[in-house]
Amino acid sequence: MSLNTQSLDFKISGGHKLSGTIKTNTSKNGALGLLCATLLNQATTTLHGIPRIEEVYRLIEVLQSIGVEVKWTNDNTVVVKPPSKLKLSTMDLVAGGRIRSVLMLLGPLVHLVPHFKLPHAGGCKMGGRTISAHRFALELLGVKIVTKEDFYDVQSKKLKPADIVLYETSDTAAENVLMAAALIPGQTTIAFVPPNYQVQEVCFFLEALGVKIEGIGTTNLVVHGLKQINQTIEYTNSEDPIESMMFLATAITTHSQLTVTHCPIDFLKLELLKLKKMGLKYTQSKIYYSHNGRTKLVDLTVKPSKLKAPHDKIHALPYPGINSDNLPFFAPIATQASGTTMIHDWMWENRALYFTELNKLGAQVTLADPHRVFITGPTKLRGAQVVCPPALRPAMIILIAMLAASGDSILRNVYSINRGYEEIAARLNSIGAKIMVE
Fold first, then answer.
1. Residue that is last in its domain, among 169, 202, 236
2. CATH number for the domain including 42?
3. Is 5 a member of any domain?
4. In this predicted model, what pLDDT tens digit does every residue of 231-245 receive, in sequence order?
5. How far is 121 from 141, CA to CA, in rounded Å?
6. Which partner from 175, 185, 384, 404 sits 20 to 30 angstroms from 395, CA to CA?
7. Phi, psi dihedrals of residue 61, rounded to the nearest 5°
8. Statement to judge: residues 243 and 222 lie in one domain
9. Given the DSSP bridges, would you call strands 307-308 and 337-344 parallel, antiparallel or unpaired?
10. Phi, psi of 95, rounded to the nearest 5 degrees
11. Which of 6-10, 13-17, 104-108, 344-348 is predicted least confidently?
12. Number of structural domains, the chain?
């Protein structure tokens, strides 16, 4: 689990059809929020469904470095027990500086340490990412955050409930405020909450710990905070809609028939509608439920389809819009659609730039500005050698395009992909891909 700086490469033999069935894993973003939220509980928390991915490893390294006992007990289960006193002075700043999720320690830590420093968040390199939504909301609860050159200086005065309007519809900010409010006795209201899957996951976990939350699944939450939480508990993380979308996009781009099971349908409905209007043929099973009894799942089977570009742009919005993490998957799909597709990635300053890397594989991607690309198809993709972008989803769409491309490709330095996908080469190979890890 130590931080691995050795470069791993994928060698891909492309142009092969995929087939069979693949199961959606539990979610990366859900796991990260749950791990941070365990700090609120004085007793032992057992979390099932935690993916073994680099982002999780880094967060666990940070937790262990400050004295939290975290042990893997089987493939995807961790047991977490906070100490009686945290040691913030020994925090692993290298691991913390490589992940965005380190920010979600703000909410729990304000209850445990009156004054601490937190490293600036790392993660995907896609332009500036403000913490204003976190800071403005936590300030209303009694937290003071000052941004220094290399860290955030955080002091918590007497914490108190508040009526909060989120400065922007940020998933991580919403999770931070939820975790902070959970241990402030009284009623805290939070408006403009994105009811995205990872936010709901934290709500479900807090409810299991005894925190009453009204409005889950809506943009307005009411949190009835507790004085303390001391409850031995087991909880299971639910499935990842972004991984479901990744497998669907891989099948569509390679013109394959594939069944993807355990897809969280509430967080894929709009993506599927857009694809249906582009000509995608697919079938959907009856709804069943995840282990938490609340997340709705379906099995989706996509079939080779003749696609056409949509007349209007494809863009992300806070949930229930197209998920910003799902938006990039429309890029390789668009290379196989007749006509020109415009993708508008307004949320991130630089991510659309990475979409042009598909041109190295024969795609026709034109960059209009740092946020918009025009993709003309259908195009015959061909193998090439590409270095992974330092961002998870853009790296993954290059891998998808390589699977569809004729000939051999090499994808260099796949750490970005390993941040978010567990054993992805082996899993893709199980449905017909030909990927060698070098």
1. 236
2. 3.65.10.10
3. no
4. 999 999 999 999 999
5. 22
6. 175
7. -60, -40
8. no
9. parallel
10. -65, -45
11. 6-10
12. 2
Token pair in block for residue 356: 């042009």
Q: What is the pLDDT of residues 174-223, one digit of tens each?
A: 999 999 999 999 999 999 999 999 999 999 999 999 999 999 999 999 99
β-partners of residue 125 are: none
Summarised one tens digit per residue, pLDDT across range 354-404 is 999 999 999 999 999 999 999 999 999 999 999 999 899 999 999 999 999
Asked if 62 and 14 sit in the same domain, the reply is no
Are 232 and 293 found together in one domain? no
Beta bridge partners of 307: 337
Reference 384, options 374, 369, 399, 395; nearest CA is: 399
Based on the fold, state whether residues 312 and 256 are members of the same structural domain: yes
Residue type at 333 in one-letter notation: I
Longest distance between any two alpha carbons in the chain, whole Å: 63
| Residue range of the domain that includes 191 | 28-236
CB atoms within 10 A of CB 358: 28
| Backbone φ, ψ for residue 323 (5° rounding) | -65, 135
Cα 175–Cα 43–Cα 290 angle in degrees, nearest 5: 55
- Report the pLDDT averaged over residues 105-134: 81
Same-domain pairing of 186 and 282? no
292 and 227 in a common domain:
no
